[in-house]
Structures are given as structure tokens and as C-alpha cells.
Design goal:
Order of helices and strands: EHEHEHEHHHHHHHH
Number of strands: 4
Number of domains: 2
Strand order of the largest sheet: 1-2-3-4
Strand content: 5-15%
Mean pLDDT: 77
CATH architecture of the largest domain: 3-Layer(aba) Sandwich
CATH class of the largest domain: Alpha Beta
Radius of gyration: 22 Å
Number of helices: 11
Helix content: 40-55%
Shape: elongated
Length: about 230
């Protein structure tokens, strides 16, 4: 008969002696990050930084609208280390911006204890790790036809009342569509939405409005005009 060997529980974490991790977070969150990494056998210097880190763990609220260029500069800060971002909350577009800005992984703060160490180890061997809930919508945006239309008119410089007249809608309906679209974009205002959509590095123009590169100039010129509506700005 073949010999059956019992499955043994691992008594201690497997160490990663060649994995140098730099932690860019302070306070209670910084301590949680270090504790999660050390519980998995990783060594993090007392000051949270390594002279030559291979992995940098950064705290960044990806739910806030920010241009791709600014996010890239904030994450990298001159380092060649691979980046793991911890965010308190974000949608698929926030995760998408982080990846386009150079992050190799996104970990939600609520899942830090379970997900951070596996994400760091995956990134260390050249893989990318994104939560399934964020990955599933990172390359699409569930905007309704009405939301796309009011966004297109809004970033072209039309006021809410003008959009209502053009689309034969109540102004309150226009505000409702814009608020819903802003929420899906992770934008807090019309200015934020226009900045994200018209960012040439963001790749959102065609995804959001279904328009090609030829529309970028016209929309940019219109959006920079005096027609900004303070109602939702």
C-alpha cells in the first residue's frame, strides 16, 4: 500500500531575506502595515525605510480625483522600487489610475491584514495583484447614455440650464445625472471630472464619452472657457 503522509501545518512564516520593503505610512496605519509584513516573515527596518528597497508600500486615497501625472510623481518619488498602494477605498477607475501611474498592486485598507503580504510577495516576483472587485471594472465604466451626454455637454462648457434645454430635461434631472457620473468617475465636481477625462495620459476620453482623439482639442478649448457652472463645481 502507498504510504500516506500527514499534512503538516507550517509552524512559522517563510522568511524573505532578499526582500527589502520601504513603508511610506505613519501612525496606526504604518504600524498595521509593518505588523502584517512581519507576521509573514518579512523584515521591515525600524524607521520604515530601507536603503535600497525593492518594494515600496505607499498609502494613497485612490478615491480622490488626481491627474495621472501628479499621482505618478507622488507614488514614485525618484525610487526604482515596485509600488504597492494601500487605499482606504476606491473604485475600478481609481485602481486603473494607480496602475497607469506605475503601481504594481492595489490593496484596500480593510483587507490589509489578509491581502498585503501576498500582494507584496506577488509584486516581488514580477506579478501584479489587484482585488477582484476592482479588476472586474478597471477597463470599462458603467455610465448610462444620459450620463455620457450630460458629461459631454458639461465639459464642453454648458451650464446645467443649457444642458436641460438641449436635452429637454428638467434641470434637477441634469444635476442628478451629473452627480451619478461624478460618483462613478471618483470626481467631486465638474472641474475634477473634466480634468480626469481630458487628461491626455489618463485614457478616459474614449472610455467615458466614446469619442476619438479628434475631440480632445475641441472639448479642452470649450472646457477652459467661461461657461463653468457653479451649481456642481
Amino acid at each position: 500500500m502507498p504510504q500516506v503522509l500527514p499534512l503538516l501545518r507550517r509552524s512559522s512564516p517563510v522568511a524573505a531575506p532578499n526582500l527589502a520593503v520601504e513603508v511610506k505610512a505613519t501612525g496606526g496605519l504604518g504600524r498595521r502595515i509593518v505588523a502584517a509584513l512581519e507576521a509573514d516573515g518579512m523584515s521591515v527596518p525600524d524607521n520604515g525605510a530601507s536603503p535600497t528597497p525593492t518594494i515600496r508600500v505607499v498609502y494613497e486615497d485612490l478615491g480622490r480625483p488626481v491627474s495621472l501625472g501628479r499621482l505618478r510623481a507622488k507614488l514614485r518619488q525618484g525610487t526604482a522600487a515596485r509600488i504597492v498602494v494601500i487605499s482606504p477605498d476606491c473604485g475600478p477607475l481609481g485602481a486603473r489610475r494607480a496602475i497607469r501611474a506605475g503601481a504594481a498592486s492595489v490593496v484596500l485598507e480593510a483587507e490589509l491584514e489578509d491581502a498585503l503580504a501576498p500582494a507584496v510577495r506577488a509584486v516581488a516576483v514580477g506579478l501584479s495583484a489587484i482585488p477582484v472587485l476592482l479588476r472586474s471594472g478597471a477597463d470599462r465604466l458603467a455610465l448610462s447614455h444620459r450620463e455620457r451626454e450630460v458629461l459631454r455637454l458639461a465639459i464642453a462648457g454648458n451650464t446645467n440650464s443649457e444642458i436641460a434645454a438641449i436635452m429637454f430635461l428638467a434641470e434637477s434631472t441634469v444635476k442628478s445625472h451629473l452627480s451619478s457620473a461624478y460618483r462613478k468617475l471618483g470626481a467631486g465636481s465638474r472641474k475634477d471630472a473634466a480634468s480626469l477625462i481630458l487628461d491626455p495620459d489618463g485614457g478616459l476620453l474614449e472610455m467615458v464619452l466614446g469619442t476619438g482623439p479628434s475631440s480632445v482639442t475641441d472639448a479642452s478649448v470649450a472646457a477652459s472657457g467661461p461657461g463653468a457652472d457653479p451649481a456642481l463645481a
